[in-house]
């Protein structure tokens, strides 16, 4: 319902952005099936491409629920719990990043993350689906599809410990010209140890290559 406080399914937030804004460290966010867009929520301007689902430190976010569960065992479909950057009919005006994780430690699990378009400048040209920097992030049971960037179409990770587990990364594009990780781009500064892992994850039909690794040993 509109304006819920998020304490239970009967009083759920309508918008994921509002749940993220209210969440405190140590809490979890459970998300029911549906389509969620970064420009929806209190105080957000519709069509604002700079808005993303900015994950919070020590707040784990889980999708795939049908809205009846009382424990963290989703009974719904994570493919139908969609975080979408399609905030405009014009594909060039989609969200620059659907999800961001910056200087945090958290888990994201059970979502389809789709239709981001990082066609801006500097960091806004990286990570159409997910942009990660300086974080320890676990991504599980997620599908990344139809995301575009100059570098790291599906996922862009810099100076982070990224765990990608049981995911599908398909149909994303890096359009740097010669391609820089259409599915996933991993990079670390020299001297920074990488602790990233990729487990049981499928990469298919990503333009610009499946994975690009720079100064990192996942």
Describe the overall structure.
- With 218 residues, this protein is mainly β.
- Helices cover 3% and strands 35% of the residues.
- It has one helix spanning 16-22, and strands at residues 28-32, 34-36, 53-54, 60-65, 81-84, 99-102, 105-109, 112-114, 117-118, 130-133, 136-140, 143-145, 148-149, 155-158, 161-165, 168-170, 173-174, 184-187, 197-199, 202-204, 211-214.
- The mean pLDDT is 94.
Mean pLDDT: 94
Low-confidence stretches: none
By helix and strand content, what is the structural category?
Answer: mainly beta
Describe the main β-sheet briefly: 6 strands, parallel
Residues in helix, %: under 10%
Write the layout of secondary structure elements.
Elements: H1 16-22, E1 28-32, E2 34-36, E3 53-54, E4 60-65, E5 81-84, E6 99-102, E7 105-109, E8 112-114, E9 117-118, E10 130-133, E11 136-140, E12 143-145, E13 148-149, E14 155-158, E15 161-165, E16 168-170, E17 173-174, E18 184-187, E19 197-199, E20 202-204, E21 211-214
